[in-house]
Amino acid sequence: MSNATYNANGDNGDMGSTEGELNEWKHRPPYKVHDKQENFKVRYEASCHCGKVQYQLSREKPLDAKYCHCTTCQKIHGAPFQWAAIFHKDDINFTNGIHDLGWYESSEKTCVHKLPCKVSCAYCRTPIMDEGRNMILLFPTLINFKNPEDRKNFDISCHMFYPRRVLDINDGKPKWSGINDSSDLIADSPQEAVNELKRKRKEEQEKENEQGEKKD
What we know:
By secondary structure, the protein is an alpha+beta fold. About 20% of the residues lie in helices and about 20% in strands.
């Protein structure tokens, strides 16, 4: 494949270089390749559809896992919702395809590596992850689970942007109208979760009132 065709396909345009200011991202997590002598315990292996991009994970369970029903996730994934798992940037180790990644920053609709951004395989276009400023969102469907127990480690804790859903999922999980913990619980959210949210918000309101009284 010619360089012109490859760049047109949306790769990062670095031609495999690791030098220079524009390539500094390759020496930082999550893209920094872990040397064999480093203490990186491989727990999972994953890849894109074509196999050009491959990575390992060292953490047994994600920090959290969620279904996101926002329209951006629906369009980019071409699916009813996004299944995302949160990891630290040091939890991932790319073993292949570090030069085969493409970027997309959705707010400005640009293909530069600007955080937060969406990362995909530049060849087959499989979404690899969403890279935030501090964390990464990985997609468990890329992981080669060896048994049902491993798959269960990625069970979701909640749904986000549930009013924008294209299908109902009556799984008894908390359903948030927007970002979890920053919006309202709706639909068939567990009553205990609703009560806990009310309690937390009541405490926050009481603290705000106390601070307001002290200022007066």
